[in-house]
Amino acid sequence: TAKAGGRNTLRFFDACIQLAMDKRLALEKDLREGLERGQMAIHLQPQVNQAGKVVGAEVLLRWYHPERGPVSPTEFIPLAESTGLILPLGKWVLKEACATLRRWADHPALSRLTLSVNVSARQFLESDFDRQVLDILAASGANPCHLKLELTESLLAHDVADIVEKMGTLRERGVRFSLDDFGTGYSSLGYLQRLPLDELKIDRMFVCDVLSNPNDASIARIILSLAQNLGLSVTAEGVETAGQLDFLRANGCRQYQGFLFGHPVPVAAFEAGIPAPL
Ligand code: C2E
Ligand code: MG
Ligand code: MG
Ligand code: MG
């Protein structure tokens, strides 16, 4: 009967939800263990200037699980954010980044580079986040001027005064800030003016079709002129072709990141690719 069929359908959905919950729990357990067992690594993706010279890198978290293989951050970062695991994970990434900066400090070419670290809203909103960063910087001996923190627009749904204060504490010590994935979130232009930012990152969503889609081209241009008016620098994300680069350059973008210049690679491989100055 229809009723029995309905019940079966319900049971089927229950089973599906149960399965999804089990999978999520298993992934969460594996992630927690992965951090403890040394399965995490940072990769670095070059950021280049107009001359094509590498000026820094974005730090991207990688997880290699012995059975699952590589798990994408687009899969495990949202899980880490909702479970709170992003707090120890984020600290680990900051420590790795600062240790790397310290190792580079005496190198003729690497010592000039900045590292950009992604910071989740959940991390930044911890009451002592600014203190955590300063402690990690001090313990590692890294120069704060070489550290950049990438924030996302989701942060702006929270107490802006508190955000501005933490940013101010860190900026006083030389740490810089960029707003990641700009244009995809819900920040109002008013917030943009209040935040002590150094840089906007144009999301790769807009860069992708900048040559074929007039709307994306307009958005990219608007972001670039907005940044110029606010005195912010801009890094374009996801630059894959020479055509995209030409467009961005012609419209005033001075810094780029994307597969055209380099994929995220292990730290040693990144270091090997930086030529010594003449
Ligand atoms: P994101 O911060 O916007 O990082 C840029 C993403 O774009 C990276 O993906 C990078 O590999 C990818 N990408 C770079 N250039 C290109 C390109 O030319 N074409 C294409 N198609 N993709 C490109 P990934 O490494 O998978 O990271 C995804 C997201 O996960 C990051 O987006 C960031 O939001 C988050 N994430 C990664 N590492 C961390 C971390 O340590 N902490 C936090 N909180 N989030 C992280
Ligand atoms: Mg980023
Ligand atoms: Mg981004
Ligand atoms: Mg992005």
UniProtKB/TrEMBL annotation:
<feature type="domain" description="EAL">
    <location>
        <begin position="24"/>
        <end position="278"/>
    </location>
</feature>
<protein>
    <submittedName>
        <fullName>Diguanylate cyclase (GGDEF)-like protein/PAS domain S-box-containing protein</fullName>
    </submittedName>
</protein>
